[in-house]
Design brief:
Blueprint: H1 10-21, H2 34-46, H3 57-62, H4 77-95, H5 109-120, H6 126-129, H7 132-137, H8 141-152, H9 164-176, E1 184-188, E2 199-203, E3 221-230, E4 233-241, E5 244-251, E6 267-273
Antiparallel strand pairs: 1-6, 2-3, 2-6, 3-4, 4-5
Helix pairs in contact: 4-8, 5-8
Length: 281
């Protein structure tokens, strides 16, 4: 079980009561808000845990709530969707604070190590990250997406991977099988309007990847996160764009659909985080 800011319910009340027991005078209201989030951070710091404000297995154990480890929690997927966009925007700002940082810059190694460790549960070294030849053989754009979604609260519902194709195919299967237990569904790009928090999926490297063939063999692909919509233009953020985290813009038609022409012709799918909507299959 993982609990984080925005969650609510009986499990949050139990976590709040435990924090009060350990000396944190917070309100016990069943809502994981700013006050609870800050208390969790302070508790983690005092107990030499990873300080991320998320109540996972190690924090639950330290709070003496081991019996909650296998419990599910009610998830606010609308909040997760907005968090995906917010975190992607913040990460992009980190890479361009002052001057644009590149993947082999020593000052960026700790960030990329965090992407790998949290996103795909893999440890990489600074020596590897600062080696241009190693970087050419190890693109990290899907690692970046995996990191963002895990940090935003995707839990075990997203197919975290070092290749975009894997989670695109997984999201496609969720939709085609009508898997309402999983909120990540992929759609052909011409079937749904774009929203903040969506993932825009494109073919790359001449792979000719499409929604129809994404499960067939190896297909080079790329995904970006929609972080803002302004009239007929959307802002997208992605990793490993010219060796940095990059921000770009795409054009929409008057109905909110991606215009598939010119450089946007390679876009073939969008992954949406369903929030109890009913989509036709």
């Amino acid at each position: 079980m993982y609990a984080r800011k925005g969650d609510r319910g009986e499990q949050i009340i139990r976590i709040q009561n435990a924090l009060v027991k350990f000396g944190f005078p917070i309100q016990v209201d069943g809502i994981f808000g700013d006050q609870t989030h800050q208390a969790v951070i302070e508790f983690q710091r005092e107990n030499e845990l990873d300080v991320d404000g998320i109540v996972g297995p190690k924090t639950l154990t330290a709070l003496e709530l081991m019996d909650m480890l296998k419990e599910e929690i009610d998830i606010n997927w609308a909040l997760v969707k907005s968090e995906i966009a917010r975190i992607a925007t913040e990460e992009c700002q980190h890479w361009h604070d002052g001057k644009t940082k590149r993947e082999t810059d020593p000052e960026i190694s700790s960030i990329l190590k965090r992407y790998y460790r949290i996103g795909v549960n893999e440890d990489v070294t600074e020596e590897q990250l600062q080696n241009a030849d190693w970087q050419k053989k190890h693109p990290w754009s899907a690692v970046f997406i995996s990191y963002i979604i895990r940090k935003a609260g995707g839990r075990d519902k997203f197919r975290y991977a070092k290749a975009h194709q894997k989670y695109i195919a997984d999201a496609k299967r969720n939709r085609e099988q009508g898997n309402t237990e999983n909120p990540f569904w992929a759609f052909p790009i011409d079937q749904v309007a774009i929203e903040v928090g969506d993932l825009i999926c494109s073919s790359r490297g001449g792979s000719n990847a499409t929604y129809e063939n994404i499960e067939e063999g190896f297909k080079m692909t790329h995904c970006d996160i929609v972080t803002a919509i302004n009239a007929n233009q959307i802002t997208i953020v992605g990793g490993n764009i010219k060796n940095t985290v990059g921000q770009r813009f795409l054009e929409l038609n008057d109905n909110g659909f991606v215009i598939r022409s010119g450089r946007q012709k390679r876009i073939f799918a969008v992954i949406k985080l369903r929030q109890h909507e009913i989509f036709e299959i």
